[in-house]
Design a protein that fits this description.
Layout (H helix, E strand, L loop, with lengths): L4 H6 L7 E4 L3 E5 L7 E7 L14 H17 L7 E4 L3 H4 L8 E5 L9
Antiparallel strand pairs: 1-2, 2-3, 3-5, 4-5
Bound molecules: adenosine monophosphate and zinc ion.
Length: 114
């Protein structure tokens, strides 16, 4: 057991609005959405960040990315577009150190990001 916020969500110790779950991954609504769709897709197994990935996680990360695409498709976002983001460490503003893929969509977004 650990104190990680997203591990606690995966274990149902903290409530979240789950939008997808399978053996490997879970997806839930961001508590402070930055777009009409703002879903976080996480591996159930704890990994701190992209900095901690090894080759064994290639298929897991592929599953996260493909799930983001599937959720976007379910919501009619594929054609109009959406953004997928992994924040890593301080300069990117990572606040939860359990790797998560942000799926943001439903509005036009600027580039470069802030
Ligand atoms: P990051 O800044 O990339 O580490 O993103 C962490 C995200 O987790 C932020 O967008 C937060 O709004 C979100 N967040 C924090 N606590 C919760 C929670 N209890 N349930 C859902 N999302 C959360
Ligand atoms: Zn965790």
């Amino acid at each position: 057991m650990n104190d990680c916020l997203f591990c606690k969500i995966v274990r149902r110790e903290i409530p979240a609005t789950l939008v997808y779950e399978d053996e490997q991954i879970a997806a839930f609504n961001d508590v402070k959405p930055q777009a009409p769709t703002h879903v976080l897709i996480v591996p159930k197994r704890h990994i701190d960040s992209l900095n901690k990935l090894s080759i064994e996680e290639d298929s897991l990360i592929g599953a996260l990315v493909r799930r983001a695409s599937a959720i976007a498709a379910e919501r009619g976002l594929s054609e109009g577009g959406y953004r997928t983001v992994f924040n890593t460490n301080r300069d990117a503003g990572q606040t939860v150190f359990h790797i998560h893929l942000h799926l943001l969509g439903g509005r036009a977004m600027g580039w470069p990001p802030g």
